Amino acid sequence: MECTIDWHGPDGMLFVARTGSGHVTAMDGSPDGGGNDLAPRPMEMLLAGTGGCAAYDVVLILKRGRHEVSHCRAKLTGERAETDPKVYTRIHFEFIVTGRNLPVPAVERAVKLSHEKYCSASAMLSKTAEITHSVTVLEG
Predict the structure, then answer these.
(1) Running along the chain, 140 residues long, what does each successive block of 10 average in pLDDT?
(2) Domain ranges of the chain
(3) CATH assignment of 42-139?
(4) What CA–CA distance (Å, rounded) separates 118 from 97?
(5) 121/20 Cα distance (integer angstroms)
(6) Which of 63, 91, 102, 128 fits as disulfide partner to 87, beta carbons 3.0 to 4.6 Å?
(7) Which segments does the entry list as coiled coil (predicted)?
């Protein structure tokens, strides 16, 4: 896996990342940090990537279990250290999963498996952050 990051300066802190799979995404800083607020912050991207990794796992586990899942939302709330390096110290995952006749225990199991076995991103972040989860299952 690889990624290339290019700075699109000199008048700000806009960076463009090109992934090994050929996709492009931008990152920027806040105006008080020299950026122009044109894109997400790098630490927001880290949180978003972790949420995407976990949500992917949850949906895949449920589908493999032949559950009828129609929507999955992972809302992450992160708290960071006060001093540098400002690592994440606490991350809460709120999963809202919609499907037909979805058993709550199956969704809870999928979330647990993602966190404990499959999600590489949350496994890395758990080295510095306390990670918690909540699950809401909706019929639909």
Answers:
(1) 92 95 96 94 97 98 97 98 97 98 98 97 97 97
(2) 3-33, 42-139
(3) 3.30.300.20
(4) 18
(5) 17
(6) 128
(7) none
